[in-house]
Amino acid sequence: MVEFIEYLGKRIILFFQQAGAVFILVWKAARYLSKIWNNRSLVLNQMLEIGVRSIPLVIFVGIFAGAVASVQTAYQLKGYISLNYLGAATSVAIFIELGPVLTALVIAGRVGASIAAEIGTMKVTEQIDALESLAIDPIRYLAMPRILSGFFMIPILTIIADFVGVLGAYVVAYINLGLPPEIFFGSVKEFFSILNVMSGLIKAFFFGGTTAIIGCYVGFNTTGGAEGVGKATIRAFVLSSALILLNDYILSVLLF
Amino acid sequence: MIAIRNLKKSFENKTVLRDVNLDIYDGEKLVIIGRSGCGKSVLLKHIVNLMQPDNGYILVDNIAIKRVGQKDLFHLRKQFGFLFQSAALFDSMTVVENIALPLVEHTDMTLKEINEKVAEKLELVGLPGVEYLKPAELSGGMKKRVGLARAIIMDPKYILYDEPTTGLDPIMAANIDKLIIELSEKLNVTSIVVTHDMQSVAKVADRVVMLHNGKIIFSGSIDELYATDNKVVNQFVTANAEGPIQPKPVTY
I need a surface site. Which of A96, A115, A189, B16 has the fewest CB within 10 A? Predict the structure, then answer.
């Protein structure tokens, strides 16, 4: 029993230590926001890497998420509610939940893990020490551009996912159910609310920031060579995904 | 001048440095020797505050490096060039981008001026024409020389070399030794070399210190090193398996 309490105590202390370290990292990165113009090329590079290069994956995920939403919503509506409302039902689900969450989860796999692997490799091969020895702060040079790009690029990717998701849903509705475009998009338009889209984008903003922050934190704390980098990559993905879902719940309670 | 006073450092339960005191004088080529894992690289990293001591302090030109704020620390670090054991080149960048990084970050030089200075330093380390290769395309010796070019790009006052010849063939190792001596003479820098390569020590050192069990057990010239009656130093210098230093028994 004493051993268990001791173990529990150690885990709680470790949790608060790590949470504190994450906040310190974010605070240090935020202090460089005033010098964003001087660091614009670093930020633009990361926006390209995190945002633009994720577009094909987001389009793929968006189309199929929309298609699946359409099939399953049609299955649930059949016999109860007119399928004329299929467009409205799927689009609202895509805007407030599927678009931001699925985009964030695939970005956690593609970007969060890659940030942790890149920074982790730099850590174990002394490249972070090299940056410091050259009087360059790794938090400004590596973390700030990634975190900032995470916050702002994921909402943009979510807009793309929302758009192609609705298109995917329509294509399936047309092929499977023969629903004409004016009925599908008519119901989308009728029930469209900018607040739904905005709440999805607010979620995406926090999901993106969380993914990038966790990737950076795990990367900077990597130890143990190639094996350590592998573990860091997994840890970043698992932690980001869990925090995205936790954030999703908290933000859903706050926003709706 | 760098003054190291009562430096102590432990990792978990293992004490690596115990009350290390050392003065490093301007313009000298100081070589720190010792067995693998004796704390040589740890000592080197303390000098530029890449590691912080548990106790004690380091004065760089009479400034206590662990007490300065980040801005002053970075200002101090600009006076140092650090050649890492693995060269620590940024593998996402080309050779020219690696070497030019400190100039891009800390100066207002034009692209033309930066390229000229990079070419000048690459010439100095004997590697012209590799500007647009990535680190993965370079041999071990080339990486070390590019790392050296990066270390000297800001014309530092102090150059720290962490095992500069480890893993290199004897000819490449001799070339690196020659470079260390040439740079020291041409740029009039203070060189601090951490190594256990005794051939390198004999060529490079103005003064040698030996670290053993976290303490400095010898400080003197190369002639004094070979003449000392300290049995630990003797065993190390003559690479003798018999003597007071014995490898720890392996338990399976």
Answer: A189
Domain that holds residue A223: 53-255
Question: Is the Cβ pair A133, B78 closer than 8 Å?
Answer: no
Shortest CA distance from B158: residue in chain A: A133
* Amino acid B193: pLDDT: 96
> In the A/B pair of chains, how many CB contacts fall below 8 A?
54
The DSSP-derived string for A77-88 is HTTTS-GGGHHH
Q: Is B130 on the interface with A (CB under 8 A)?
A: no
Number of structural domains (chain B) is 1
Residues facing A155 on adjacent strands: none
> Is residue B105 in some structural domain?
no
Within-domain flag for A32: no
HSE toward the beta carbon, residue A119, CA cutoff 13 A: 28
Residue A88 identity (one-letter amino acid): A
**CATH code assigned at B215:** 3.40.50.300
Please give the structure tokens belonging to residue B102. 């400190």
With beta carbons under 8 A apart, name residues in chain B contacting A127: 88-91
Q: Where are the beta strands (DSSP E) in chain B?
A: 2-11, 14-24, 29-33, 55-60, 63-64, 80-83, 158-162, 190-194, 207-212, 215-220
The ipTM value here is 0.89
Distances (CA, A) of A166 to A93, A185, B66: 10, 9, 58
CB contact under 8 A, A126 and B48: no
Tell whether A126 lies on the interface with B, counting CB pairs under 8 A. yes
In a domain, B126, yes or no: no
CB A133 to CB B106 under 8 A? no
Q: Which residue on chain B is closest to A39 by alpha carbon?
A: B105
The pLDDT profile of chain B, 252 residues, written as one tens digit per residue, is 999 999 999 988 888 999 999 999 999 999 999 988 888 999 999 999 999 999 999 999 989 888 888 888 998 999 999 999 989 999 999 999 999 999 999 999 999 999 999 999 998 888 888 889 999 999 888 999 999 999 999 999 999 999 998 888 888 888 889 989 988 888 789 999 999 889 999 999 999 999 998 899 999 999 999 999 899 999 998 888 887 887 765 555
CB A123 within 8 A of CB A219: yes
Residue B78: list chain A partners with CB under 8 A.
Answer: 135
Does the residue B161 lie in any domain?
no
Query: Of A127, A135, A136, which is closest to B88 when you measure between CB atoms?
Result: A127
